[in-house]
Design brief:
The protein is mainly α. The chain has 2 domains: 34 residues; 48 residues, no CATH class. Helices cover 65% and strands 5% of the residues. A two-stranded parallel ribbon has the order 1-2. Helix 4 crosses helix 5. The longest helix has 19 residues.
């Protein structure tokens, strides 16, 4: 949960502020807490955001398609993804 909260707060506030609130350093945050979300993949792939009323099965299929498209862009790096 801490990782997902760090990621959410980071979207709204500067890194040094969020780290101060959560009690970690920018280096630790970048190494351990900041996550790549499905929305990040969608934005990177230039795909429209999934709407909230879409079924879970459709969202999972959509997420898989986005990850597949992004694989060529991101290379073989491993990224944590939160649902």
């Amino acid at each position: 949960m801490r990782a997902s909260r760090q990621t959410e707060l980071q979207r709204e506030f500067p890194l040094h502020v969020v780290c101060s609130w959560l009690g970690n350093s920018p280096r630790i945050a970048q190494q351990s807490y900041l996550l790549v979300t499905e929305d990040d993949f969608a934005k990177g792939a230039g795909v429209a955001k999934v709407i909230a009323t879409t079924s879970r099965a459709t969202k999972l299929l959509f997420a898989h398609q986005i990850k597949t498209r992004c694989a060529g862009i991101l290379g073989s790096h491993q990224y944590a993804v939160i649902d």
